[in-house]
Amino acid sequence: MIVEAKHLANAYKNGRGLHDASFSLREGTIMALAGGNGAGKSTLIRLLTGQDKPTAGELIWHTSQDVRYMPDDVDFPVTLTAEEIIALLASLKKVSKAEQKQVLERVGLWEVRKQRVQQYSKGMRQRLNLAQSLLGEGKLLILDEPTNGLDPYWIAQLKKMVDEERDKGCTVLFSTHLLPFAESLADDVLILHEGHVLATGELKEVFAKHQAHDLETLWLAEIERERG
Amino acid sequence: MMFIKLEWKQMLRSRWMQMVGVLFTFVFTAIVVIQQMALPETEGFSRQTASFLNLLLFLLPLFILTIGSMSVASDIESRWLSLLKTYPLTMRHYILGKFIATVFAFFLIVIAAFSVVLLLGGFLGGVTLPPVFIFITVASIFIFSALSVVVGVIAKTRLYALAVALIIWSLLLLLISYALMAIGTVVAGHVLQKITVVVIHLNPVEWLRFGYLLFAEQASVLGPSYFDLIAFYNSTLGNIVYFAVTIAWVIVPLALARLLITRKGKEA
Amino acid sequence: MRKIILTLMFWLTLSLSASANLQQQIDEAEPGATIEVTGEHSGNFLITKPLTLIGKDATLRATGMKPALTIDNTQDVIIDNFKVIANQRGIVVKDVDNARIVNIAASDMLIGIQLHRSKNIELAYNSIEGTDAHYAKKGNGLALFQSEDLHVHHNQITKVQDGIYIEEIQGIHVHDNTVTNSRYGTHFMYSDAGLVENNTYERNVTGLMVMMVDGFTARYNTSRYHNEMNGSGVLFYDVKNATLAHNTISENRLGLVLQKCDTVRIEDNEFLVNQTALEATRVDDVSLVMNNTFIGNILTARSDKEGVTLYANYYDDYNGIDADGDRYGDTPYTAYSSFGQWMVRQPAYQYFVASPSVELLTVLDQQTPVAQHMLVDDKPQMIKNEAHMMGINYAQALLGGLLLMSTLIVWRKGSKR
Prior knowledge:
The structure holds 3 protein chains of 3 kinds. Chain A starts with a strand and ends with a helix. In chain A, helix 2 crosses helix 3. Helices cover 38% and strands 25% of the residues of chain A. Chain A is built from 8 helices and 9 strands. In chain A, the strands form 2 sheets. Chain A has a 6-stranded mixed beta sheet with strand order 5-6-7-3-8-9, with helices on both faces. Chain A has a 3-stranded antiparallel beta sheet with strand order 2-1-4, with helices on one face. Chain B has 11 helices and no strands. In chain B, helix 3 (47-77) packs parallel to helix 6 (131-155) and helix 6 packs parallel to helix 11 (236-263). The relative contact order of chain B is 0.12. Chain C has 2 domains: 1-194, Pectate Lyase C-like; 205-406, no CATH class. At the B-C interface, helix 1, helix 2, helix 3, helix 5 and helix 7 of B face helix 4 and helix 5 of C.
């Protein structure tokens, strides 16, 4: 186990946010974080990445809190080039030049590394975002809506990279709206709804427990059950 | 270091910054050259020095406050800062980096303007750039860069930063003075004098102007009401106090920015 | 031949005994005699008869608090070329008719030369240097009291209270003197028919101070760098029938101050780069400021409600044009600025002089012409402003060029990918 959440909460005044979430993240696995708008995904990620502190409950880290993070909504400084941005971020983590080149190659930006970000398409920016999250040695990789703006080719590449990261011993948490994508990639799942946990655990166990074959039916069924 | 370097690169690459550089150089040079040609040689506080100083006090704070604050606010708005926070970069370093990059970028602009003045002035028989003038320029770059960082942190978005910067600029440059003059019509002279003395310390624009007059030994231009104040600041202790207050004008905004930037993040 | 030898011997003995006892020599000399003095002489010497003293590397050193030399109740005295050292007063002249005191170098004393109740006196080519003490603790360079027909010229005076102090004098011509670093350069009190010409006043509190005087002319003087807290180039207080013409008044805190003046004419002067060129309070409407040149002053004029009459002066900040070509601007010039008036009434406002806020205000002020009755010149003179071309300063141009180039290189390098 790499991190454990116990009755974690961080609620906003408007009632949104995270109210009560308990789950654990197993080391060396890929966990999908699913849920609708306002389910509390972003809040949870903010807590995991240390941008915010819980108002109740706790996060128990079993390793160092060294997180690599791919946010879903960052705009990179437009007058800088991909190479410069990676160099800057790499310098903060003391990552070698060779590795900088490697991550840019992995996301297919090496050839255009000297272009300013303002000349990049949405997909290219997202790949740069992915590239920066691959920098360094952090044992936990958090990807917030990583498929946004990516074409099918790069979604496939993303999957490959995430698998590679896990194979290297990393733990990966990614949030997504795309339940089939989550199913196809994740070992574990954490489904949030209105600030609390709808379901969590190993994908197979969750399906068995809820007598479902896919996340979509599971999710809809659970929501119906809550309302009913 | 890398952070400062790239911040500085961003500054230099920004169109707005390049425009400011050209504009500042142009206006500055025009004023100097016109005055040089139209006015007799002088050594005291003249219209020439007054317009130098006013140009500096008008333009530098405006440019620094807007550019500096927008640079910080843009990082917040674009969530770039949020990403940086997940990296091993302390907010102290971030604030200092922003500050130093702004200071360097404006040094470059001012040096460019001064060198054009020297170049053209050379063809007109030579102009003088008094050391005090350079000192005040440097001091105002430091002070307003620090202020711009805190404005950016408070504003959080580029547009809002621009608005806040403009409001602060007009307050410091004009509105506070006009308010004081208005107050002067209803209160007694010695009261106005005391309020003015307080304002000199609380308004960095006035503080720099006062410093210029003080160190150029032209403070008599302020008139007899301020003899005591000037006498104090002309003493050794006064000089120390002047530098201490000037440094406080840099450190306090930076410390405030540092405090506010870590408190943030609770916005819904 | 014999007569010549005798005369030579007479001179020789005189010179020799002079070094022995100067006072004795003075006492023994015939009235109208000439004594040549060399070397240093200590004492408090007294002259009471017509006499010429000519110094050759001679020094008179006062003992005690008394003057080094006193000339009392006599006529036709010439004192030429002495160094004078005294604790208080260098030379005192009392009740003397017709004297010349020239080429005196006095230093570190309180008062250089003091004059009482005398007539037809010439004080010239003297150089007087006081101490660095505060003005209140010093005396005047030339202190002139209750006398008539004085001729004071080519003196160099510095670091005293008043350079030339003139009290109750009838008829005095002061010219080609230089007074610096003193309280007042030349100070007139109750003295009529004075003429002050070609003098230079620099870095005093006030260059030329004229108080309670009827009948006075100052012309072709230069008064500049009077920037202390109370500093002004020229100040008239309670002055009647005076003319100030062709003077250059530059770089003072206040150029010319007129307080309580009747029938004064301020003509053909140049007011350059003063903080405030002209300040007038309680000036009558016969007085006239005409044909002067105002260039580079922060504030041209300020006054109380009575104002002062401005006519056909040149103002560098006049915005009008001369369409009819009569060499005068077609619209009136208004020296009035709201701010200038405020400053007169409330000195605390002066803090804002030439500040960014006020500069802006002044611009707006000039764009909204309000009917003002004071400080308006209906016929502002138009002069074509000549550029001050002084040749090329290559070193500076080169420095600027190099600096600019390196800035651009740094900029390019900084923004290069």
